[in-house]
Amino acid sequence: MLSILNSVSSLNAENAISNTTSALNKNLQQLSTGLRINSGSDDAAGLSIANGLQANVAALTQSSQNTSDGIGMLQTADGALSQVTTLLDRAVTLATEASNGGLSSTQATALQTEYASIQTEINNIGSTTDFNGTAVFGSSGSVFTSDGTAAGSKSISDAVSALSSTALALKTTGTPLATTAGAQTELALITTAISTIAAARGTIGATVNQLNASASVEGTENTNLTSALDSIQNADIGQVVAQMTQNSVLEQTGMAALSQSNQMQQNVLKLVQ
């Protein structure tokens, strides 16, 4: 039927072109952002899952940084304790020498003076060693890691005991190396202090290993979640390009169909000429 009041074919063509143009615009948006999901209307369920995974990834990324900071602090403490061990080894030499009879008062005084300097340096290491502006020795902190969930959160203690001559139970008053008896007593204390430092370094090493293991797990989990996030929200560029090509052709054929439909309207005029 020929009619000039309504052209159903034109309306169908316009509607098809509108849908095709909308799909084409969506293809272009996906290509420009690289994302399959750009709004809730694209995939409401997928967007919700993607947002949850993004939170998990963000928590794991920061947890990795927390772990690195904790390891850095402990390694700083271990390096400082290594220096203390070197100082105590020298103190052993001094105390052993002072324990031997036959030293002059001048020699004994020199040994005591050097030993006092060693104690002062140990105190300095204990009070001035810091990591990122925070004192290392005497700290009571912990490393917090999380995957963004309560069940996936934990804290690992990275506390380091205070360090000083007093904390190592060395004699800090008087002149212990001034006499052979005092030097022999101090030698035993120095030997014990070396064992104490060794134990502290062992504890630090164990904690570093624990943090490294935690970091490894976090890295694997982060990789897996990122892969899952990519598969949900990222656009398949090859597929989008194929769809865009198809929609582009449909838009062109739709425009041709609309033009043909409008031409049919013009044919009505020929009947009344």
Overview of the structural elements:
By secondary structure, the protein is mainly alpha-helical. The protein folds into two domains: 188 residues, f41 fragment of flagellin, N-terminal domain; 37 residues. It has five helices and four strands, in the order αααββββαα. The strands form two sheets. A two-stranded antiparallel sheet has the order 1-2. A two-stranded antiparallel sheet has the order 3-4. The longest helix has 55 residues. The protein is rod-shaped and about 135 Å long. The two termini are 18 Å apart.
Strand order of the largest sheet: 1-2
What is the fold-level CATH name, i.e. the topology of the largest domain?
A: f41 fragment of flagellin, N-terminal domain
Alpha carbon gyration radius = 39 Å
Q: CATH homologous superfamily name of the largest domain?
A: f41 fragment of flagellin, N-terminal domain
First and last CA, distance: 18 Å
Helix/strand/pairing category: mainly alpha
CATH class of the largest domain: Mainly Alpha
